[in-house]
Each structure stands twice: as structure tokens, then as C-alpha cells.
Amino acid sequence: MSNLIVVGSIGLDTIKTPFERRVDVMGGTAAYFSLAASFFTNTGLISIIGTDFPQNYRDLLKTRGANLDGVEIKEGKNFRFETEYIGNMDERNDISTEVNVLGDFNPKLPESYKSAEYVFLGNTDPEQHLSVLDQVTNPKLTALDTIKLWIDIKLDKVMEAIKRVDIVFLNEFEVRQIFQETNLKKAAMKCLDMGPKYIVVKKGEHGAILYGRDTHFSIPGYPLESVRDPTGAGDAFAGGFMGWIAKTGDISEQNLRKAMVYGSVLASFNTQNMGPDMLKKINIEDIQNRYNEFVRMTHF
Amino acid sequence: MSNLIVVGSIGLDTIKTPFERRVDVMGGTAAYFSLAASFFTNTGLISIIGTDFPQNYRDLLKTRGANLDGVEIKEGKNFRFETEYIGNMDERNDISTEVNVLGDFNPKLPESYKSAEYVFLGNTDPEQHLSVLDQVTNPKLTALDTIKLWIDIKLDKVMEAIKRVDIVFLNEFEVRQIFQETNLKKAAMKCLDMGPKYIVVKKGEHGAILYGRDTHFSIPGYPLESVRDPTGAGDAFAGGFMGWIAKTGDISEQNLRKAMVYGSVLASFNTQNMGPDMLKKINIEDIQNRYNEFVRMTHF
């Protein structure tokens, strides 16, 4: 039984940074999310992979507690994505996206996933979000993320999904785009007007903000001296956040604040090395130490 | 006797925002700084004004506790500055700068200023910074701010002044420019290597960071639904910061963190109306309430 489930891509990424280029690194929302969440709980993945997806990547996910019962294996090539980070790595050029087997993915939840209490809908097609929401029977906390692509081409479905979840995760550009409002706070309030109890606005090196109807919590970015690869930071954030919530079973605002910090801890670690390399190396003590640093750097 | 002194411009600003245009608003570092600091202590100003500087502006500064003994009045026109904020007001076009009487200002401290314990060097000519530092006899905490203009044309003097102060206030672009380092933390460490005990990096809506050799404190921006005019926010920040320190006489790191919050409170209020209008309206209770909001929005 998986109490935390995620729908999202499992990819083979080719990443170029000012430091190096790596081909077919394991990537995708479901991979980063489950690795980050693994420090707190096991995750049930809902995804699809091609027959060329390496066995050792599958093994890695499994040894880190991922349940792959919801991962369909389809004859054909895996989803692939190539990108290049430029300058200070706050900009990137997407070079190619090969959808491949991910193209007509229709998520079908294994019986053991349906009673999951914690549900994260990664930045895939919003119709997949709606399908997963239709299949879960007992959600205690649902959350979604999306990207510019879906806002551009399926805004009505994005909106439909937003109405049905408890928390929306967006970066500052996406929230402005969806709600057509440059002021972040006003845009956040427009989001809450649609139904969600909270919105998390991610601001990269500037941290993240949790807005509720009557509350606001801001967490700064962790001051890294060296960023090696920003890929997957948002998914690692969500994995740390939802993993902590699933582990504690506590959805009070006070605990959501702690989840914001754990999300920031996992996201910051993730950027310190290529692909998910850093998530493979760290342990719960590293995470707790950085959490404590967040306490020291924010309290007065 | 003035225990807190500031050297900086007193200007007549013409400001255009997407909302309105106002001519000859009182502005300049020394004006914003002393108004912001006035909630905590009186400030001795070191500046120069022209004979056309309105009497009612001088009266306003005085009623707010400013000591103008160090403000020279010179035959001629006052320093004037015209700027236009565009779009979301995170960009501005400077339309004109008339230096006028500020051109050959040579700060000469009244006797009553020389024993000041708290000294703020606004973003004027770094040679004025060095001159003020030469004249004070008993400083407990000195701080400076600068701008791109001086970094472009007098970097050696900027560096000389940085070496001689305890705290450097810079925005994120200035710190990257001076220390030729895009990574903020590395740039901050390069600054500390030169002598200062702390550097405050201001990031506008994203808040501010206090870096010490072994410490780091991050304060988020206050989430405003409406920004009317960003002019003077940095000076109001410095005024709130230094005013709090001068009032308490405590330069411990714990108290510098509180000063960061008071600086953020004053800066955020200042952007909510044109010119220094908001600083004229608020009272200490408003300030304390917003300080408490900062506690609520950052603690976990």
C-alpha cells in the first residue's frame, strides 16, 4: 500500500551546464519527487517508461522505497529531454523534447494506490491530473504542479484541476501567467479564490512562499556557493514537502511550514550536483543539519 | 548632539510611475534615511541644499527630529533628479540628474556631530565617505552604501571606504559588480575579506540578507498588494536599520537581525505611497505591528 503517490514523468535527460554535459541521466518529476520523499516515506509512482529505460535506474528507485506497480512499461523509446543552462544558470534553452511512450499515457492506478491519503500531481498533462483525482478514494491532501506548456495549450483543464486540489505549487512566472496578475500576492489570492487552501510560490534562489487565505509564510533560498544543475529542483521541493507531510500525517499550517523548509532543504541539495546525484548521496542527518541551518538563518 | 549621523543628498525628485507624476518631491538619501530613523532616534544630517529648497520641507525634517546643523545652504539651485518607473516598477529610466549645488560638496561636520557613535555614509561620492570617516572621533558602528555610478568611475575610492567601515549595504547587482562574482555568497565573502564585519545585500521584493563571517540571516520581502513608488526604499531600509541600532546601542548580531527587520518594515511602508508620503503618515505602532507580522511570516 502506498500512502503517498505521484503522477509524473520518468525521463532520460541530457543536461548541459557551464561545467559539463551528461547524456540520459535519470530525470522526470516522479523520479526526483520519489528520491526526495524517500527520506521520509515510500512513494507510489504513476508513470510510463519505454523498454529502453535502464534496469539500474529502476533498481535505484526501488532501493529508495519507490513502488513501481503504477509504472507501465511500454514497447518503444522512453521520454527524453535535452536542455542547456546558460550563464549563471538562471536561464535555460530547451534543445529537444521527445515525448515517445509518454505521449498517450493514460494513468491507471493499481488498487493499492487508490486509498492513498497524499497525492501529488506533477507537471504532466492536466487531464492526467483529473484522471488520478477521479481514481483516488480517500485523499487527505492533494497538490498539483504545472508548467507553461499546459497553461499555454490546456488552460481550461489546468483550471479544472486547480479547483479540485488543496495545494497548488507554481513558480512565480507560472502564477503570474495563469492568473494574469503581476503582483504575486494578488495572483496568489486569485488562486485561492478558485478553491485551494494554499498556494506555494517557488522563486528559485529567492526561496518560496506559502500563501493561505489568512496566512503567509516565506522561506529564503539556501545560500549555496555553487550550483551545479538546477534540473529537478522544483520536483525535489515537492517531494521533500509531501514526504514530510505523509510521514507526519499532520496537515496543520504549522506543519506545512515545516514541510516548506524540508522542501527547500531537498531542493537546495539537489542543485549541488548533476541530475539526482546529490539525492543519492545525502542522508537524513544531512537533511536535519540543513533544516537547523534554516532555523538559524531565519529566526530573530 | 547627534549620536546618529548621515551624509547624503537632499533632493527634489520628479517621479513618474504608472499611476501618477509628481514634481519636486522631497527626496535624497539623507531625507529618506532621517525620516525612517526618526521613529527610533534623531539624526544629524550632513548635506547641502540650494536656496530654492522649500522651507516647508526643511520644517518637516526638523519636526521629525532631524538636526540640520550639518546642512549647508548654498546660493544656487538644489540637486534635482527625474526618473520614470516602468511596467511592474522593477525597472526605471533615469531621465535627468541636475547635480547643481551638490556638485562640489565638501562635508564639514559641526562639532556636535563629531562624537557620533553611529555613522551612515549614503550613496554619495566615496571621497565624501572618506572625509566623514576622517572627521568622526568615536564611531561605534559605521556603514556605507554606494551606487553603480561610483563603482563605474571611482572604484578605488569605493574600495578604500569599504575597507574602513563595519557594514556595507549594497543591492545584489552592486555587490556582483564590485566583487566581479555572480554568486552572491562568494561576492559577500569577498567583501568581508576586505575588512567589514557584515554586508547587507538588498534584493528588493525578495528581501535582504545579512552576511557575517560565520553567520547568515535572510529576511523575506513584505508581501505588498500594491507598490506605488520604490524611490527611497534602500535609504528607508538603512534609516530603519541604523535608527534601531542607535536607539538600542546594541551592536550584537542578535540585534543586527532585529535591525534588518525594522529596516524591511520601513522600506516596505515607504514603497506604499509616493515619495516619503508614507513615512509621514505611519507611527511607531504601525511599525511594531508590521514587525510582528514579519515574525509570523518567517517563524516555523
Report on this model:
2 copies of one chain form a homodimer. Chain A is α/β, with parallel strands linked by helices and 300 residues long. Helix content of chain A is 39%, strand content 26%. Chain A contains 11 helices and 13 strands. The first copy, chain A, has helices spanning 29-37, 55-63, 126-135, 148-153, 155-164, 172-179, 184-193, 233-248, 253-270, 277-281, 284-298; strands spanning 4-7, 11-16, 21-27, 43-50, 66-74, 80-86, 91-98, 118-121, 141-145, 167-171, 198-202, 208-212, 216-219. In chain A, the strands form 2 sheets. Chain A has a 9-stranded mixed beta sheet with strand order 5-4-1-8-9-10-11-12-13, sandwiched between helices. A 4-stranded mixed beta sheet of chain A has the order 3-2-6-7. In chain A, helix 8 runs antiparallel to helix 9 (253-270) and helix 9 crosses helix 11 (284-298). Chain A is globular, with a radius of gyration of 18 Å. The termini of chain A are far apart. The interface between A and B is large, with 36 and 36 residues.
Of all chain pairs, the largest interface belongs to:
A-B, 36 and 36 residues
Beta-strand level of the residues of chain A, as a percent range? 25-35%
- Give the neighbour order of strands across the main sheet of chain A: 5-4-1-8-9-10-11-12-13
Tally the beta strands of chain A.
13
Short description:
The structure is a homodimer of 300-residue chains. With 300 residues, chain A is an alpha/beta fold.
Comma- or semicolon-separated keywords:
homodimer; 300 residues; alpha/beta; 9-stranded mixed beta sheet; 4-stranded mixed beta sheet; 11 helices; 39% helix; 26% strand
